[in-house]
Every structure is written in structure tokens, then in C-alpha cells.
Design brief:
Number of helices: 5
Strand content: 25-35%
Oligomer: single chain
Number of domains: 1
Distance between the termini: 47 Å
Largest sheet: 8 strands, mixed
Number of strands: 8
Helix content: 10-25%
Length: 187
């Protein structure tokens, strides 16, 4: 199973769960997915925290292939890093919906035969935003395990038409915005 392989290689970070998703061979994961590993920290090979991740990743895998990947990129420039590292594991019909902090409007682009829907998100929870995007109500998920909920999201994506203009990767990388984060903390 591909998710267990990722776990053994240390590519899953801040994991919430890995569990069956209601059908034989189908497994779901929520947590962060490592894009760039941290440096080796000591002689025994342990690593420092990763330097780049897909935050709040939502992944559904069918055996050895990824059939759904979603999450948050702080910078759209990390998308090619994800594709380069994980494209061998993409199912031909993989659904890919990413929230990106440094884009101003929704866009679509194709890389390695996969259509990526990219949605701007400055602040928020990927899971909640994904449910909103797909018009899935909490009642629709009632009684399902965490893994089954991810499978429900994948099923909803079959009929989903992504918003935004179709652009090239070069155009998307050239049209980024500067993200300004407000101060947070007690008032």
C-alpha cells in the first residue's frame, strides 16, 4: 500500500490518520505530505523537520496509486516539486484540488496528464474549504468513518466542474500575489 510506504519513508508528517476508506484496497490519509525533506540531523540518520510540505493534505489511495490529492500550498511554485516527486504514483484519473495562498483567482492547469484545480486560500482549513467547494453538508457525512468521508469527497469530485481559467504552469507562476499575514494572538 502506497501510504504505508510513504509512512515508512518519513513522507507523512503531522499525521491525523491513515485508515481504510470503506472499499477493499482503498485507504485515506489526512495530515501533511513532505515535499522536501529536512537535512540529516545526526549520525543515526534522523532528519530535521521537512523544509516544504503540502499542509493539511487529504489523500485517497487505491492500492499503489493516488486517486485523490488535496491540500494547501503556501506557494504555487511547490506544485512542480509535488509533481516531480510523486507523479509515478498518480492514477490516470487522479483528482487534484489544491488551495494556494499566493494566487488571486481560481485556475486550472494540466501537468503530466492530470488536471489540477487551484483555488486561492489565504486562511482556513483545507477540509472545510474542500467540503464547501463540493457542496457537501456535514449531514452527508454522518455515520461515516474518517476514511469513508475522504472517499465521499472523491465521489463528489466526479461531477465537480472546477472554476477558473485554463492556464499554463509558466503563466500561473508569473501571476502570483504577495501574501500579507496579519498579526495574531491575544487582544
Amino acid at each position: 500500500m502506497i501510504l504505508k510506504t510513504y509512512e515508512e519513508k518519513g513522507l507523512l508528517f503531522n499525521s491525523n490518520f491513515i485508515e481504510p476508506a470503506g472499499q477493499p484496497g482503498l485507504f485515506a490519509y489526512r495530515g501533511d505530505l513532505v515535499l522536501v525533506e529536512g537535512d540529516v540531523a545526526d549520525a543515526s540518520g534522523r532528519r530535521k523537520p521537512p523544509t516544504a510540505t503540502i499542509r493539511q493534505a487529504v489523500i485517497l489511495a487505491d492500492g499503489e496509486k493516488l486517486v485523490l490529492v488535496s491540500g494547501l500550498f503556501e506557494d504555487i511554485a511547490r506544485l512542480p516539486v509535488f509533481v516531480e516527486r510523486y507523479s509515478a504514483d498518480f492514477a490516470p484519473d487522479m483528482s487534484a484540488v489544491f488551495f494556494v495562498a499566493n494566487i488571486a483567482k481560481p485556475i486550472k492547469l494540466d501537468l503530466n496528464g492530470i488536471r489540477f484545480a487551484l483555488i486561492p486560500l489565504e486562511d482556513g482549513m483545507v477540509w472545510n474549504e474542500l467540503l464547501d467547494e463540493l457542496n457537501i453538508e456535514k449531514a452527508d457525512l454522518k455515520g461515516q468513518s474518517a476514511g469513508e468521508k475522504v472517499a465521499t469527497v472523491k465521489a463528489a469530485l466526479k461531477d465537480h466542474v472546477a472554476k477558473g481559467e485554463q492556464v499554463s504552469l509558466e503563466s500561473a507562476l508569473a501571476s502570483t500575489i504577495e501574501v500579507k499575514r496579519g498579526g495574531r494572538g491575544p487582544v
